[in-house]
What we know:
Distance between the termini: 43 Å
Structural class: alpha/beta
Shape: elongated
CATH superfamily of the largest domain: Spore Coat Polysaccharide Biosynthesis Protein SpsA, Chain A
Order of helices and strands: EHEHEHEEHEHHEHHEHHEHHEEEEHE
Number of strands: 14
Largest sheet: 8 strands, mixed
Amino acid sequence: MPAVSVLMPVRDAEGTVMRAVESIQSQSLRDWELVIVNDGSRDATPRLLEAARRLDGRLRVLHLPPCGIAPALNAGLAACRAPCVARMDADDLAHPARLELQLRHMLEQPATGLVSCRVSYQGAGAGYAEHVEWINALGTHEEMSLRRFVEAPVAHPSVMFRRELVDKHGGYRDGPFPEDYELWLRWLEAGARFEKLSESLLVWNDPPQRLSRTDPRYSVAAFYEIKTASLARWLRAQAPEGRALWLWGAGRVTRRRFDALERQGIRLAGFIDVDPAKRGSHRDGRPVRMADELPEREGSFILAGVAARGARGQIHAHLAVRGWREGADFLLVA
Length: 334
């Protein structure tokens, strides 16, 4: 049995897949298997993979008809033999020390269920570059757990996780949502401990044709639908009982994005905003307060839903200096 199974789904990646494979073959850790799931590729990918497999017995290739990312990942998971599974994508590059450092952490920290790492971004999208900067800033389990209602706190191809998490809490689900974000939300909700190494051990490429840019399952609406369902469960289980729930962000876009909370049975008491034109007004039949007239902390809980760049940090600082505690009195949920 290998020490690590590397799971890599691929479809029509003839231009990048061999560099991704070679980055695994160049690992300082030699005790691994690479399980490659060919999800119905129509280019030269199958031929390239078969040629590589004949030269390296650690490569195992599963050829499937086109079935989609979640079924392909689950088929690969079923074939993985090691107690630790590392994810990899066919257009990314792993640092030579990645598997060694992540496996060492898993062996030294038995309570850790998943370990990620910082990533280096390679692409032209400013939005993704900002997302990578945000991900890299989340270093502890507590930060990743509390901030999971903002965005996915780890890069999918950067993680290594214990196979027992799949056995206990299930693998990837196929539906109208991003399969990785749904998995992180579900595992964190179940109590899995996430850690992140400080080293940058993956080059995360962002080609124009990547699924997260082209598939409706990765749309903003899809993220908010799965996010608010998980957030509603967190609020029912963790938010202090009896506190009025306020949403920071009275603009129409923010309000509509969190309408799904009310469909989940979570009632908002009102809104907080910084626009002086909204002072003393009402939105959706509820009052709007300014940042300088916060509700009483002991009887309130704030969801900071503003997604504008830099706004979350400003809201966090504004609340923290006034004694509001993240996780106990407010959450960042943009």
